[in-house]
Amino acid sequence: MKDYFHELNLIDLLSEKHKALRDKLDENSGNPLNHTETHVIAKLELHGTLSISAISRMINISRQGAQKCVNGLLAEGYAEIAQAAGNGRDKHIALTSKGLETSRKLLECKQDIERNIAEKLGAERVESLKRLLAEDWL
């Protein structure tokens, strides 16, 4: 552990740990996607199909940023355009089989990292941490 971690406030400590976890995920997955793209893929797997506007709201980026990210996912074959049910005007984005497979591989990597953390900290402490972070305190 880095010596300065003991000096950090909660927000900075969470930020440092988040960055370290993301770096570990990138290292373990070998995935060529950036963090925004993996975030969009996770949201699409969770919700099935989403509009660009919905994606931008969910991951808190501009609509133009969401459009650029989705265009990259479309170009690389991770996502496809799907017609919205009952609405010929709106286009929604859905994952392709490549996108679903990528999402599943990322989930497996996350589960492996969580298992490694549980081996170091103990499963009970990891579950306690997850419960605390899931509470409505912000």
Give an overview of the whole structure:
The longest helix has 25 residues, at 97-121. The chain has helices at residues 10-29, 35-47, 52-59, 63-75, 97-121, 123-134; strands at residues 49-50, 79-84, 87-95. A hairpin with a 2-residue loop joins strand 2 and strand 3. It has 138 residues and is α+β, with helices and mostly antiparallel strands. The chain has a single domain, classed as Winged helix-like DNA-binding domain superfamily/Winged helix DNA-binding domain (Arc Repressor Mutant, subunit A), CATH 1.10.10. It has 6 helices and 3 strands.
Task: Give a quick set of tags describing it.
Arc Repressor Mutant, subunit A, 6 helices, 138 residues, 66% helix, alpha+beta, single chain
DSSP strand tally: 3
Distance between the termini: 27 Å
The CATH architecture is Orthogonal Bundle
Radius of gyration: 18 Å
CATH homology superfamily name:
Winged helix-like DNA-binding domain superfamily/Winged helix DNA-binding domain
Number of helices: 6
* Helix and strand element order: HHEHHEEHH
| Secondary structural class | alpha+beta
- How many distinct folded domains? 1
Strand fraction:
5-15%
Stretches where pLDDT falls below 50 for ≥5 residues? none
Oligomeric state as shown: single chain
Summarize the structure in short.
The protein is an alpha+beta fold. The chain has helices at 10-29, 35-47, 52-59, 63-75, 97-121, 123-134, and strands at 49-50, 79-84, 87-95. Helices cover 66% and strands 12% of the residues.
